Structure of Nicotinamide riboside kinase 2:
Amino acid sequence: MKYIVGIGGMTNGGKTTLTNSLLKSLPNCCVIHQDDFFKPQDQIAVGEDGFKQWDVLESLDMEAMLSTVQAWTISPRKFARAHGVSVQLDASDTHILILEGFLLYSYKPLVDLYSRRYFLTVPYEECKRRRSTRRYMVPDPPGLFDGHVWPMYQKYKRKMEANGVEVVYLDGMKSREELFHQVLEDIQNSLLNERRGPAPNAGTQTQFRPQYGQAGGIPARHCVTISLWGSLYI
Ligand SMILES: Nc1ncnc2c1ncn2[C@@H]1O[C@H](COP(=O)(O)OP(=O)(O)O)[C@@H](O)[C@H]1O
Ligand SMILES: O=C(O)c1ccc[n+]([C@@H]2O[C@H](COP(=O)([O-])O)[C@@H](O)[C@H]2O)c1
Ligand SMILES: [Mg+2]
């Protein structure tokens, strides 16, 4: 069985932290980080506000991300081998892929591929505080958060909701441990249900239809991590 989990939501909601914990506990689990698909700086448009528009879908090479997801979907084992990782399998033959990023549910070709979509949020003040401590590859210029990051977050979230994309909201103010256990348990339950039979709404929650792009090479910056079967068997 192939199972794709989205760990999405706002910047600094705790997506990468949660994903790293899940990877250690979920069997045969690969991850694709959306951040690894940012286009080079010279291809990022400058808005009328004077800010580089990092927080829009066009700043990401989503076709390349889709191709990477597609490669996993076609053969998770081959995908793992292609990245030099051996995967131990047991009889259940479950393969999990985590997609992690801040604009996971706004790209139509991907949106219906998820088995489960999580969405982390924290209040504005906490998001701004956490962001002020972060150092990205390209540091935030003064005023970027209020002038670009936050308005774009709100815009894409509104669109996602208007499109009827079903997500499981997660309170990013909970402790790292609480979030980890909550999501791990939820994924385990969801996997059990999937094994019992297809969920009535799986893959059909929105009007979007998957449209696969051309499969291509995986850009060098793209990082794929594989975690092997651990002590946990689902
Ligand atoms: N549950 C949490 N509670 C408090 N701080 C957190 C929590 N999860 C992550 N953090 C911190 O918030 C910051 C952003 O976390 P990160 O996982 O990188 O977020 P994202 O990938 O969503 O931008 C980091 O400093 C991280 O240590
Ligand atoms: O990683 C990069 O190259 C990069 C360059 C410029 C900006 N970013 C920021 O990365 C943010 C998304 O990552 P994250 O982990 O905060 O969800 C997004 O809000 C961008 O503003 C990231
Ligand atoms: Mg992150």
Q: What stands out?
A: Confidence is low (pLDDT under 50) at residues 202-234. The first helix runs from residue 15 to 25. The beta strands are 2-9, 29-33, 95-100, 116-121, 168-171, 224-227.
